[in-house]
Amino acid sequence: MNDNLFLTQEKANKLVDGYVKKVALKDFQRPFLHQAKFFPFQAHTGTAGQVRFPRENPPVMELYARHFASPRFIKTVRHELIHYFLFMDKKPHGHNKEFKEWSCRVDAGGTYHHEGDEFLYFRGYCPVCGEIKRIRYGDDEKQMTCSKCKHLGFEIDNLFGMNEIWIKQADTARKNIIDNPRYIVLLPDGSYLRSEMSQLLLKVPKETTSTMRSAYVTSNLSKALKRAKRYSGQVKKYYTADHEFIESPYIYQCKECKRIERKDSPFLLNHLVCGRCKGEIFIFKGIK
Ligand SMILES: [Zn+2]
Ligand SMILES: [Zn+2]
Ligand SMILES: [Zn+2]
């Protein structure tokens, strides 16, 4: 019997603890000084990961084992590490502005939700200066020039030897994303239209949400367009919306047609062209 196929919880916890410690050193250049483990194997948690900070005991990071061989796993780890390091630095450690800026820097996106476009991207790095770049599946990383040091050619991060498994998984997931498109409605203030279901369950009066979990998602494009029209919003593909929401927290609005653009930098005000009306005058609406 192959040991690796039937890991005990204890062995698995050792494995994931070592993994998190490697990610901390590689992506944050800081040690993770506490313990990471999987949620119990039978657990059905609503979340991919969490860090707990019990008052009497040291912090513990817990991760969902079933995601281990998935491209989004390392992002969940980075996401939880940001919570952890903010806590260690005695700073507010929620999903605040600093959190999101950090999330952009280390590529921790797409971890608020179980879906996402992680399967459509690889994480590349410049072999000379270490600059990180998201590389779309199918694009040739050897033909890309580093924006920092001008070196030609990126490498795909092998993620501690996990890449092969991930690429196999990604093929299935990509096919699903492409064959079953789903849509979401982005509103003029940069939030999303809330699903009626979540309004009912949470008893919230607001029709908008900034968490992807309670957003309105549909596979019916004409329905989505109708709703977008009613709320002066715009229809986005669900998987890109998820990615934009975390990694592009800076909101710009076209002055002419009110279209919203999410970007990953606050310094683009004079460099944007509206995707709808081709207008070039934007208003910076802040971070969300
Ligand atoms: Zn979080
Ligand atoms: Zn470079
Ligand atoms: Zn416009």
Automatic annotation (TrEMBL):
InterPro entries: SprT-like_domain (IPR006640)
Domain SprT-like: 14-156
Highest rank taxon of the organism: Bacteria
SMART domains registered for this protein in UniProt: SprT
GO-annotated biological processes: response to stress
Name assigned to this protein: SprT-like domain-containing protein
Species lineage: Bacteria, Bacillati, Bacillota, Bacilli, Lactobacillales
